[in-house]
């Protein structure tokens, strides 16, 4: 299958109001000349990003304010994105985490994470895949999972579960589709410098976090090359390789110590 060229193509990005989604939107517009449909809950952030992109490039930008933990909102995003029959790609990036002892995670917060990271992602993937299967139009979807899908992460136990679901779900689904010009990519970043990690709990781990510009560039490149899965950065790649050699229990015990200590600081 030929590598993707994003020029003049419409790409949907969820979670575009900050962090990785925001940065991928900038790079897709400025470096790849894509047109964008940007989705998140914070309308003013999306509007600012639209104005930045449209004032400095020829890319067109639509914004949709939506809560992707809500099925009606997701269905509205799918409907708007497909109504002009020209959607080429989607980056399903919106997600939330919880960093701390699992026993202190409130049930409502767990359900919110499950609805956003799992239920919402499955609903979006299903709605968009139905379109690409029915039309047989070329395109692709990139799902932003995490290294936590490969190395289950203590003190982010429920989050790791949601990210592992993404990896297994998409990997299995990719063998069901019939469209020969369509691909899924599961992106597996490790820690990144974004709003998600910009708090006291993560500050002892700051030196490990990848700059978001690099994470965005590597993710877009993996999507462009239609990689089935992709881990960015040398340290993360090494971690993924080691997890296939050293018993996972040993690595995860080390992670438990590091993350547990970070939470005590
Ligand atoms: N940061 C890391 O260390 C790291 C590592 C591996 C993987 N990841 C993954 O990377 C992705 C992006 O995260 P990030 O680090 O860029 O975090 P971020 O800066 O907190 O961005 C998260 C984005 O998701 C959106 N979002 C969250 N809940 C939403 C909802 N219910 N409806 C609509 N949009 C929602 C947020 O927008 P609004 O608040 O405006 O709705 C925001 O735009 C996530 O899937 C995350 O799990 C992050």
TrEMBL record:
Q: Which organism is it from?
A: Taibaiella lutea
What PROSITE patterns is this protein classified in? Answer: ADH_SHORT
Give the UniProt family note: Belongs to the short-chain dehydrogenases/reductases (SDR) family.
Record's InterPro entries? NAD(P)-bd_dom_sf, Sc_DH/Rdtase_CS, SDR_fam
Superkingdom to which the source organism belongs: Bacteria
**Keyword Kinase carried by entry:** no
Q: What is this protein called?
A: SDR family NAD(P)-dependent oxidoreductase
Q: Tell me, what is one Gene Ontology molecular-function annotation carried by this entry?
A: oxidoreductase activity
Annotated PANTHER family: ALCOHOL DEHYDROGENASE
Short name of one Pfam family? adh_short
Tell me which UniProt keywords the record has, alphabetically: Oxidoreductase
């Amino acid at each position: 299958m030929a590598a993707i060229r994003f020029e003049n193509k419409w790409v949907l990005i969820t979670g575009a109001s900050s962090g990785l989604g925001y940065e991928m939107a900038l790079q897709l517009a400025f470096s790849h000349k894509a047109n964008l449909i940007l989705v998140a809950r914070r309308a003013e952030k999306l509007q600012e990003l639209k104005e930045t992109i449209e004032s400095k490039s020829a890319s067109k930008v639509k914004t949709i304010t939506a809560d992707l933990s809500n099925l009606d909102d997701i269905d509205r995003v799918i409907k708007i994105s497909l109504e002009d029959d020209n959607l080429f790609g989607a980056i399903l990036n919106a997600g939330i985490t919880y960093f701390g002892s699992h026993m202190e995670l409130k049930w409502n917060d767990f359900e919110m994470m499950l609805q956003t990271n799992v239920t919402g992602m499955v609903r979006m993937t299903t709605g968009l895949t139905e379109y690409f299967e029915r039309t047989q139009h070329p395109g692709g979807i990139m799902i932003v999972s995490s290294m936590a899908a490969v190395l289950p992460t203590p003190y982010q136990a429920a989050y790791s579960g949601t990210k592992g679901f993404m990896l297994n779900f998409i990997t299995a689904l990719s063998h069901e589709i019939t469209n020969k010009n369509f691909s899924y990519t599961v992106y597996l970043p490790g820690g990144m410098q974004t709003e998600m990690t910009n708090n006291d709990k993560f500050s002892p781990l700051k030196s490990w976090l990848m700059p978001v510009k690099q994470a965005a560039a590597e993710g877009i490149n993996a999507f462009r090359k239609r990689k089935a899965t992709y881990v960015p950065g040398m340290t993360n790649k090494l971690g993924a390789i080691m997890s296939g050699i050293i018993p996972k229990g040993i690595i995860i015990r080390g992670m438990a110590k590091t993350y547990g200590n970070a939470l005590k600081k």
